[in-house]
Amino acid sequence: VSVTGGVTGLVPNDNRGIGTMFGPDATREFMQREGLCLVLRSHEGPDAREDRPGLPSIQEGFCVDHVVEGVGKLCTVFSAPDYPQFSEEGEQRHNNKAAYVVLRAESGFCTPEPISFTAVKPRPKCVPYYD
Prior knowledge:
Layout: E1 2-3, E2 10-12, E3 20-22, H1 24-34, E4 38-42, H2 46-49, E5 62-68, E6 72-77, E7 98-102, E8 113-117
Parallel strand pairs: 1-3, 4-6
Antiparallel strand pairs: 2-3, 5-6, 7-8
């Protein structure tokens, strides 16, 4: 499932050919129905947002996608710095930071505290395994 700017409700993600895009109205309905103050979603990197204007940048590894007034937030966390990890010589890297999120009991686990980090450079030599 994927979030996008300008979308209302739930719509197929024809751009990627897989998944569903959703708007703030769908986020509100889900959060209210489930009694949530925060939704953290993951693995939508910079490449997925390149051709979708209106979406917040994920270059720092974290962004707030929807602020649902009186309810909470939907945020994206991306934990792969300098995406993609395995690329051929000459392929584009996004030079993005990655992040993890700290949640604290005193905020009711509703206030994300993102911590961004960068990739180790130069990258260690490795051979990816793909089956």
